[in-house]
Design brief:
Length: 196
């Protein structure tokens, strides 16, 4: 998606060879017009897939996911990283997500009330790095007996393993911006999935 690539170039900051800072438009301050354009692009990609639910993980996935859900006219559910006091032990599905970027493991949960075997789920998230968040969400979907239609990603770091790991599991990935490299402070792109 050209608009997103332009914003990555103009407003993103290469923080290191592995990490891109996008907090002025994606994951701290949020650009609503950009988010809506991205949501429309995901809608075009998945509109024939009978999506019944959008699933993401707190916190940064929530903003794009809610806009996508609005276009599909289905609920958005986000996996929580802590168990709310209102949920009893047997009332939620649980999975583990290890973050290589942050070197922590989070237990993520979704209430059994909000995912079920009739659901056809589209996962939305801001970054795809090592694919662990998507695998954790996919585990929740499996535990609910639901099916996974695909994954919509705002920014994929193609030089990390996430994409490969998901494709090996036959998971369809649509990334609006695919970063080939962040070496020497410069962003290099691969062709995004919506442009193929
Ligand atoms: P993975 O799920 O693909 O394996 O990714 P990884 O564990 O490496 O990433 C974990 C967290 O780090 C995610 O946020 C993700 O959005 C963030 N992240 C990964 N790469 C980058 C990057 O290059 N730049 C920035 N700004 N963030 C990155 P999270 O733990 O879910 O936190 P939240 O922000 O959603 O609360």
């Amino acid at each position: 998606m050209k608009l997103l690539e332009q914003m990555v170039v103009n407003d993103g900051k290469v923080y290191s060879n592995n990490v891109l800072k996008v907090d002025s438009f994606i994951n701290h301050q949020i650009d609503p017009k950009l988010m809506l354009e991205m949501a429309k692009t995901f809608y075009e990609q998945f509109k024939n897939d009978n999506i019944t639910k959008i699933l993401t993980i707190e916190a940064s996935g929530i903003a794009p996911a809610i806009l996508v859900a609005n276009l599909f006219n289905v609920p958005m559910v986000f996996a929580k990283k802590s168990v709310p006091s209102t949920l009893t032990r047997d009332s939620f599905y649980e999975a583990q997500v290890y973050s290589y970027t942050k070197n922590v493991t989070n237990n993520i949960i979704v209430s059994k009330d909000f995912l079920n075997k009739e659901d056809k789920v589209l996962i939305i998230d801001d970054f795809l790095a090592n694919g662990q968040a998507v695998l954790g969400l996919s585990d929740l979907i499996d535990k609910a007996g639901a099916s996974l239609a695909g994954v919509g990603i705002l920014i994929e770091k193609s030089f990390q393993d996430g994409r490969k790991i998901l494709e090996e599991k036959n998971i369809r990935v649509c990334s609006l911006c695919r970063i080939a490299s962040l070496e020497d402070g410069k962003v290099k792109f691969n062709k995004a999935d919506d442009e193929l």
